[in-house]
Amino acid sequence: MTRPVQVVPAILSDEPATLDKLVRQAATFTSYIQVDIMDGQFVPSKSIGWEDIARIKPKLNWEVHLMVLRPQDHVAGFQKAGASKIIFHYEATPEPQKIITAVRKLRLKVGLALKPETPVSAVLPLAGQIDSVLFMTVHPGFYGAKFLPEIMDKVKELRRTLPEMEIAVDGGIKEGNIAEMARAGANVICVGSAVFLQPNPAAAYRRLVALARGEAT
Q1: φ/ψ of residue 170, rounded to 5
Q2: What is the pLDDT of residues 73-129, one digit of tens each?
Q3: One of 36, 39, 52, 131 is an active-site residue; which one?
């Protein structure tokens, strides 16, 4: 089955006012975003929390990517804030099954994220219980981190193993590599600086979508 490629703007901010601005900006060119959450422990940087996004009440659909230790402590808050999907890191907990169960009890979608060094085999025992796998294509924690092209091999491996799985990639993806990520088998591509740090974010987003879908000339 060929899945249409979805390009998802990813918002990362440590300032509530900037978060509000970026969410409003994204709503002018997309209906779905990812909000990145960092705790300063699992990754070096720290971002806003669920209370901040609850306060602005986004008018579009959104998922949250938890780059935090003890993700179970964050699940209920983001459900309350209005997330439709919670993505947490395999490496953040010794018991990912418990987190999956907690998210499911709240009737949310659940995704499992993998750091660059984590093998594809780690996710396979849990594949039947999750909605997606998110490969980090950078070492997480910093906006604009260096893209790691070797992660494309992991995307290809998982696509061969689980052809129906939703496979997402996140980090360092720009005009020059987005088409290659789509050809490797990623059907959800998260982009941050390639959209929000451009002079015209809406035009940059549309260009990335066209490239990812092989529609650009």
Answers
A1: -150, 125
A2: 999 999 999 999 999 999 999 999 999 999 999 999 999 999 999 999 999 999 999
A3: 36
Write phi, then psi, for 14 (nearest 5 degrees): -110, 10
Catalytic residue among 20, 52, 131, 170: 170
* pLDDT tens digits along 26-44: 999 999 999 999 999 999 8
Q: Is 199 exposed, middle or buried (0-12, 13-18, 19+ CB in 10 A)?
A: exposed
Contact 36, 53 (CB under 8 A): no
Q: Is 170 tagged catalytic?
A: yes
Q: Is the dihedral of CA 145, 13, 86, 10 positive or negative?
A: negative
**Is-catalytic flag, 39?**
no
- What is the model's pLDDT at position 131? 98
pLDDT (average), residues 52-79: 96
Q: In sequence order, what DSSP letters do the residues of 6-35 get, joined into one string? A: EEEEEE--S-HHHHHHHHHHHTTT-SEEEE
Q: Which residue has the tokens 């992991």?
A: 154
Coil, helix or strand at residue 142: coil
pLDDT at 35: 97
